[in-house]
Amino acid sequence: xxxxxxxxxxxxxxxxxxxxxxxxxxxxxxxxxxxxxxxxxxxxxxxxxxxxxxxxxxxxxxxxxxxxxxxxxxxxxxxxxxxxxxxxxxxxxxxxxxxxxxxxxxxxxxxxxxxxxxxxxxxxxxxxxxxxxxxxxxxxxxxxx
Length: 145
What we know:
By secondary structure, the chain is an all-alpha fold. 64% of the residues lie in helices and 0% in strands. It is built from 4 helices and no strands. α1 (4-21) packs parallel to α3 and α2 packs antiparallel against α3. It is elongated, with a radius of gyration of 16 Å.
């Protein structure tokens, strides 16, 4: 499987390709397209601190490895997947920057790939590894928002 950052890069390339060859109509015109910087900045501000927290807690960022610790602090108090949510926000920003309609299709595809290809598997792994502690956390904190 390809890791999520690779899926992000593939998605950005697909979005730019759609914008260039099949824009599907304008959603925003310049300078309003620059509003795309806002969700991109929020995505980075959400995902980066979560990734750094995982590093400080000495647990893996790799979705294919079993976590050594259950991290529930920082952004993980509000969403169980701040890094994935951050990537989606970055893609929303890219779509807004293009000003075109068709790049938004890629965001839906990316979210589905992340949800079913990564999050569901990670949740199962965390449930097996941390048991009731994870189940209580999952009951109080939403998967995305």
